[in-house]
Design brief:
The protein is of the alpha+beta class. It folds into three domains: 230 residues, Sandwich (Immunoglobulin-like), CATH 2.60.40.1660; 51 residues; 227 residues, Na, k-atpase alpha subunit (Immunoglobulin-like), CATH 2.60.40. It is built from eleven helices and 28 strands. The strands form nine sheets. A five-stranded mixed beta sheet has the order 4-13-12-8-10. Strands 19-28-27-23-25 form a five-stranded mixed beta sheet. Strands 3-7-11-9 form a four-stranded antiparallel beta sheet. The chain is flat and about 105 Å long. 24% of the residues are buried.
């Protein structure tokens, strides 16, 4: 409660008393909370108070965010990007994998397991076929999965993959469960795809002994295992799969079933090590004649000694329903609950009263009330005519603060310009400061190839159809664009014609005449129309790097291809100066790829001529090229190709992509 003071300066009389503040209505209290004209407070705080509390919380939450970032960084240091910290029995997933099925129902009915359509209505079964096409896209196009094309291997029970290799899953030949055949949905005999969930380092314990099969295993599966034991014993290392109707009526209505390509998941896919490019094995379940107009409950199980079956936990089994020949699907309804919580506002008002000062003169008492201080309004803040201030500052104050910040930023700009000038003085325009062993690039160049896919960035797959003009045009246009820098470069200025006996002089560069490299020219569509595509190879530039050539045919590495060794020996006899070449070889990565790749022609030479080196950053310099012409590559087969550059000082590393390049070819 405020004090009111009355004093008499002549007689030293002072009266002090407390007075009750005036009563205010609730509305007035609310208005006073929102804005108090007397104190200039907003929501109970003045501008200074808001600034202090705002600064406090800014510092507080800044320190809190910093601590959180540090803790998060420390946490990520404990994680391995490939190997989980907890696995198998110590993890939440456990040691028994679950099964999944595709196609999956629409996202607006995610809990449903019903596949329901009318076989005679394309609009109805197209959803399911498109869902399968999207799911199988990574299996059909190896380039969509990072590292898959490079690590892929054609596995078999007698040819398991090596470390870091992943097995190929060829779904294109699984008739009638193929994209071209609409997965047989239009014939009311649909294909359902089954896959086993991945568990890191899990190793299946196979049922490969017919004398120790579980009682609940279907009889037809037991008979299948017994037949394989006699005919193909190596195939017993398989995670078996069985699909049946759940009830006797479902068993009767489900009809005959075919398992494609085999009746289970081959054992050579396991254990799963999170290798780059790995895809889970899948299989197609073809329901040949399911009864139409009836809902069929189907349950598929995976069989191995260390796979348990639990319907409640959905472990080792998968359930779905199949219904064919109805016009529409009756989907589940989602129930949304909206809860609105309201809390009554809490108000607090603060009041101040001015002091009353009374003067007693000549024995009489005269009460004189001083005027309260004038509150600062928004209008006064913008312009106060009494002080002549704008935005709270007078003209002199504005001049001082503008002069301060102007000087501050001028000095700051001078310091920045000075440091930038000193930094630029350390840079040489003739070449990088660090090169060869002192640089990050090192002394072993990498290889590159063209054309590259403009649709799937990072993909190393060259895939086209010779019967489709737009299909091969994408690749030939990409090559035309790449070779623009090599064309229209007439001999003149500092561009000279070079050969092994005529090397460029100081400040000169060699011409590369790609227009004469038939059939690998734009006029011949780089031979893509004849199913004999040309792929251009180039060696990455490293400043002042000079190749250490194989000048002695008796000193060739063991891993060098035999045909290249014979070529070098032949050149040594014809003219030793041709040995000053960075040789190039292109082969299939695997035995199957070597069989399918066919004859390979190198244009204009089987390597990069030595007169292009060293690269000194001279104007108009372009890297030498080699056109690799695949003359009779096998069609409709994915061929993995690996090209290598050969010199004493070129290392080969698939992991670091040094000295070699990998790509895939698929011609339909």
């Amino acid at each position: 409660m405020p004090k009111h003071v009355l004093n008499n300066t002549d007689n030293n009389v002072e009266f002090i008393g407390n007075f009750r503040p005036p009563e205010r209505s609730t509305r007035e209290k609310i208005k006073l909370l929102l804005y108090n004209r007397e104190t200039g407070a907003v929501l109970g705080r003045t501008g200074t108070s808001w600034a202090k509390i705002g600064l406090f919380y800014l510092i507080f939450y800044g320190i809190l965010a910093g601590l959180f970032i540090v803790c998060l960084w420390v946490f990520y240091q404990t994680l391995d990007p490939r190997i989980p910290s907890c696995k198998l029995s110590s993890s939440l997933i456990g040691t028994s994998p679950g099964l999944g099925f595709r196609p999956s129902p629409p996202m607006d009915n995610v809990e449903s397991t019903l596949i329901w359509y009318k076989g005679t209505d394309p609009e109805q079964y197209q959803y399911w076929t498109k869902n399968l096409e999207k799911f199988l896209e990574v299996y059909r196009k190896p380039g969509l999965t990072p590292g898959r094309g490079q690590n892929i291997y054609n596995c078999d029970y007698d040819k398991p993959p090596n470390e870091n290799q992943v097995c190929d899953v060829i779904v294109k030949n699984w008739d009638p469960c193929t994209q071209e055949n609409n997965f047989n949905y239009h014939k009311s005999a649909p294909c359902i795809f089954i896959k086993l969930n991945k568990i890191y380092d899990w190793r299946p314990e196979f049922y490969n002994d017919t004398n120790n099969l579980p009682e609940k295993m279907p009889r037809d599966l037991k008979a299948h295992i017994g037949m394989l034991k006699t005919e193909r014993p190596s195939w017993l290392n398989t995670i078996w799969v069985s699909c049946e109707g759940e009830s006797p009526a479902d068993v009767e209505n489900i009809g005959p079933i075919t398992y494609i390509p085999t009746r289970g998941f081959p054992g050579y896919f396991y254990p799963y090590k999170n290798s780059e490019g790995y895809l889970s094995p899948v299989m197609a379940i073809h329901f040949q004649r399911p009864r139409t107009g009836i809902l069929i409950n189907i349950e598929c199980k995976a069989w191995a000694r260390n796979i348990i079956h639990d319907r409640q936990e959905r472990v080792g089994i998968v359930h779905f329903e199949l219904m064919i020949d109805f016009l529409a699907a009756n989907w589940l309804c989602a129930v949304h609950l909206h809860i609105l919580c309201r809390a009554p506002p809490v108000f607090a008002a603060s009041e101040e009263m001015s002091k009353d000062v009374g003067n007693i003169k000549d024995g009489g008492v005269v009460y004189q009330e001083n005027e309260p201080a004038k509150p600062v309004t928004c209008k006064d803040f913008l312009y106060d005519p009494d002080r002549g201030s704008v935005l709270g500052r007078t003209g002199a104050e504005w001049i001082r603060i503008v002069a301060f910040y102007l000087s501050f930023y001028i000095v700051l700009a001078i310091f920045f310009a000075l440091y930038f000038w000193l930094f630029m003085k350390t840079i040489s325009y003739d070449g990088p400061k660090y090169y060869l062993d002192d640089s990050v690039i090192g002394t072993s160049p990498g290889l590159g190839f063209r054309p590259l896919s403009e649709v799937h960035e990072g993909s190393s797959l060259i895939w086209y159809n010779t019967s489709s003009e737009t299909s091969h045009k994408n690749w030939t246009m990409s090559l035309d664009k790449f070779l623009e820098g090599y064309k229209n470069r007439t001999v003149g200025s500092n561009i000279v014609g070079c050969d092994y006996g005529n090397k460029p002089g100081y400040g000169e560069v060699c011409a590369v005449d790609v227009d004469t490299w038939k059939p690998c020219t734009s006029a011949n569509t780089f031979d893509y129309l004849n199913s004999s595509p040309c792929v251009f190879i180039k060696l990455n530039k490293i400043l002042k790097w000079e190749p250490d050539y194989f000048r002695n045919a008796n000193d060739l590495p063991n891993e060098m291809p035999e045909d290249l060794k014979n070529h070098i020996k032949k050149k040594e006899k014809e003219d030793p100066k041709f040995l000053d070449t960075v040789w190039v070889s292109c082969e299939g990565e695997n035995p199957a790829d070597k069989e399918f790749i066919g004859a390979v022609e190198y244009i204009p030479f089987q390597g990069f001529p030595g007169y292009f080196y060293p690269f000194l950053g001279v104007e108009n310099y372009v890297s030498p090229l080699v056109a690799v012409h695949f003359k009779n590559i096998t069609r409709n087969v994915l061929v993995n190709v690996e090209c290598r550059a050969w010199a004493h000082n070129i290392e080969h590393s698939r992991r670091d992509r040094i000295g070699l390049v990998h790509f895939e070819l698929l011609i339909d």
